[in-house]
Write a structure and sequence with these properties.
The chain has helices at 27-37, 43-55, 71-76, 106-113, 131-142, 162-177, 216-222, 407-410; strands spanning 15-21, 83-88, 93-98, 118-124, 147-153, 188-192, 236-242, 254-258, 263-264, 269-273, 277-286, 289-291, 294-295, 299-304, 315-318, 325-336, 347-352, 355-369, 374-377, 387-400, 411-415, 422-430. It is of the alpha+beta class. The protein is globular.
């Protein structure tokens, strides 16, 4: 295979795709197949995988080795960390995150899904809908992933039986429909595939004439999600205040950061949150020079017309946009990602954007049950991989949005102030 070449600029925005499923559902093989069939591998990468397969005595090239990069994963035959891969077709660029399937690594699934535009969930045609598959579907919707793609894999091992596919499709659709954040067509799609043989992944399968839909890759190439942070209310968390105070630039004052959502332009009147002071954007500066606008995802320096007080952790918000809520407490859904369980009265740091605020968990309101897909009221211990609804009390006001409205400014981390370890990932629900 020849080396991957640079494609023309795709018409659609890059698609961030998180893949997940239960253990041995074939996620790594699927991603390897996608990269292989879509010619997304360098020649040396393919040669390395072929050689590794020969050393192991495999009859064919093991495409799962393309993404299973950690030594421990190769030894165990499972994915235990998030493997990131990038490739492009003439139609689109892709960022693929291969998340772990084992229940012990749910926290890694949270990492993969938190920034995804689509969750690609694999289901073994022989096993159907398992608990861990439910967990990944639940987490994907909890984290607001706009679209779900369910690939029923290993259809070759069930004789390419349409009835098997239909039963799994109906089971998944029923489960997803009952989730607190449901998902329905066109943002829920199903595909019968064989990752091992490439059926319905890049090329249509002759073994399943009863399926007349698009291939998996074609669907991903043309998928439009509802999440467009450029159209959302603008948020600019200030990461660094730049004041050189040298002879050449005695009056220079700039505010560096990355636009979290929306678009900012020179001339816009903005409010500094939480102080609520106002000014107007004088100019926007990047490494490549001045810009007429700064869209979501762009790192830049913003200059204001007035000498107002702005510090790290403050947020610049257009005065005519929907404003974040300035709160001292909120209810949130959290995924506990640390081996150490929460202790009553324990203090944390809430890391929200570029701001850190001291906080405590006042109480656990409900357990988010994976099996039923519902919130079960009542206290529950916060231990590794627990999903729960909690009440967080802050020691000082914090400007937040509901996660359902803005993922960037509605998400946060709970940090251990002593060790700096992340205890939980959270999504603001209400206040």
């Amino acid at each position: 295979m020849s080396e991957n070449t640079e494609h023309d600029a795709p018409a659609l925005a890059p698609l961030r795709c998180a893949t997940a499923g239960s253990v041995d559902d074939g996620k790594s093989t699927l991603l390897g197949r996608l990269l292989f069939d879509a010619k997304g591998l360098m020649a040396d990468q393919l040669a390395h995988v072929e050689e590794a397969s020969r050393r192991r005595g495999y009859a064919r090239t093991d495409l799962a080795l393309i993404t299973d990069g950690l030594r421990s994963e190769r030894e165990q035959g499972i994915t235990i960390d998030v493997a990131w891969r990038y490739f492009a077709t003439p139609s689109r660029r892709f960022v693929l995150a291969d998340a772990p399937g084992h229940v012990e690594y749910t926290r890694n699934m949270v990492t993969a899904a938190s920034q995804a535009d689509v969750a690609l969930i694999l289901v073994d045609a022989r096993a159907g809908l398992l608990e861990q598959t439910r967990r990944h579907l639940f987490v994907s919707r909890l984290l607001g992933v706009p679209a779900l793609v369910v690939a029923v894999n290993k259809m070759d091992l069930v004789g390419f039986d349409h009835a098997v596919f239909a039963r799994i499709r109906d089971d998944v659709a029923q489960y997803v429909a009952n989730l607190p954040v449901p998902c329905s067509a066109p943002n829920l799609a199903f595909f019968p595939i064989s990752a091992l043989h490439g059926d319905n992944i890049v090329e249509s399968s002759s073994s399943m004439p009863w399926y007349d839909g698009p291939t998996l890759l074609h669907h991903l190439e043309t998928l439009r999600t509802d999440a467009d942070v450029k159209d959302a209310p603008a948020r600019f968390p200030v990461q660094w205040v730049i004041r050189p105070q040298d002879d050449e630039r005695p009056d220079y004052r700039g505010y560096a950061g990355r636009v979290a959502s929306g678009v900012l332009r020179p001339g816009q009147r903005v409010r500094v949150v939480p102080s609520r002071t106002e000014s107007r954007i004088a100019s926007i500066e990047t490494y490549d020079g001045p810009r007429d606008e700064a869209e979501a995802g762009l790192s830049c320096v913003i200059h204001l017309e007035d000498d107002v007080a702005v510090a790290r952790g403050d947020v610049l918000v257009p005065v005519d946009a929907k404003q974040p809520a300035l709160v001292e407490a909120f209810t949130a859904d959290v995924a506990w990602v640390h081996t150490q369980a929460a202790k009553p009265g324990e203090r944390y740091l809430v890391k929200h954007g570029t701001r850190e605020v001291r906080a405590i968990i006042e109480g656990v309101e409900a357990l988010l049950d994976v099996e039923s897909g519902r919130a079960i009221p009542g206290a529950a211990p916060l231990v590794l991989n627990t999903l729960a609804r909690v009440r967080v009390r802050l020691f000082e006001p914090l400007a937040v949005d509901a996660y359902a409205d803005l993922r960037e400014s509605g998400s946060f981390l709970l940090i251990d102030p002593a060790s700096g370890a992340t205890r939980a990932a959270g999504m603001v629900r209400a206040w």
